Structure formats: C-alpha cells, structure tokens
Amino acid sequence: EPEVTQTPSHQVTQMGQEVILRCVPISNHLYFYWYRQILGQKVEFLVSFYNNEISEKSEIFDDQFSVERPDGSNFTLKIRSTKLEDSAMYFCASRDHNRGSNQPQHFGDGTRLSIL
Amino acid sequence: AQSVAQPEDQVNVAEGNPLTVKCTYSVSGNPYLFWYVQYPNRGLQFLLKYITGDNLVKGSYGFEAEFNKSQTSFHLKKPSALVSDSALYFCAVRAQYSGNTPLVFGKGTRLSVIA
User: What pLDDT, on a 0 to 100 scale, did the predictor assign at position A10?
Assistant: First the structure.
C-alpha cells in the first residue's frame, strides 16, 4: 500500500536556525497538509495546500513558516528561525482528490524536531 | 467552529473483553468523522470513517464505530480486545462539503489492553 514518507525522522537544531522538513505524499494525491503534535498534546493543524497554493492555515502558521512543492513529488515545510516552542512531531498528510472530499488523509510517520 | 472531545485520557481493558473509546463532536452541518490510531514513534494510521448512510461503520483490525446524530457521538468499539490494540486513538471531524478544510482532532485516548 502506498505511503506518505517523511525525512528526516529526527532533526536536532539550534534555536534561531532554519529547518526544512521534507515529505513525499502518495503519488496520485493532490491535497497536502502539515500538522504538528507537541509531546503529550493533541494533533494541531498547520496548513493545507492544493494546486500549488495554500488553501488554509492556522494561527500557528505565522510568517516564520512556509511550504513549497518544489517538484512533482516533494512537499516541504520550512521554519525560518526556530524557537524552543517549535519542538514537536511534525506530520505530513495527503488526500486523494479523485473520489470526493470525504476521503481520509494519510499520514507519514513524522519528523521529531528538537530545538536546543 | 469544529471541535472534538475525547473525555477519557486512558482506557484500560482486559484482553478478550469488549472495548469502547468515546468521542463527541461539534460541527456546523453534517460531519465527516474519522478514527486514527497511533503506535509509538509512528504516524496516524486511518482506521475507519463515517460519511453517510449506515450509522455503524466497520474498519480495520475488527474495529467499528457507531454514529449517533442526536448525541453527536462517534464512539469506537471492538468486541474483543487484543494486547496489540494498545495504542493512542484519535477521533477527528471535518464538515461535509467543506472543500479542503483540515481535520480537527480530539486530544487522544490511550488504550491499554492487559493480558
């Protein structure tokens, strides 16, 4: 069964540095999402992306965040100047567009981001 | 605004016994409802969904969930729990016909199945 893949699995970065989290969505999916999960807390929506533009973003997704689909397969999340509170698991998800908006989102295994 | 409540942080059940993980939701209009499971160091794995039609939906690994519109609930159930079912379970909702709106998740319920 096709999967969403995320790299790296764990990223350790100094505060103030830029990080790029990478995702390869399922190949025929066109809706993409980033969520994050701070340790022990709920999964929170960051941003959704379709047709090469952001569809919706949450209050968390401020100017330090950006997303990009640089080629036909990758979907990246960039955090420009990391803060301690950015430490979390970041999940990428994708959804099939062909069978209506009720299709489930499929999630990757996440990138654990640790800011020192 | 959409929201999901999972009132139990932890559910403990003996192997072989039935299990229930509770979920209630709030959404404008009709909902799409989902259950996901998260094993340690893994992503969210889709279990089942309610879209329309039969209120009892069946999903992966013998799980099922019952949609109750009057109680705005979507409780997850399994007739006979396995130790391997021990994991973190998330209920999620989005409004029907809402385009590309994201899922809203509950805070999760940790299920422990004891041998």
Answer: 95
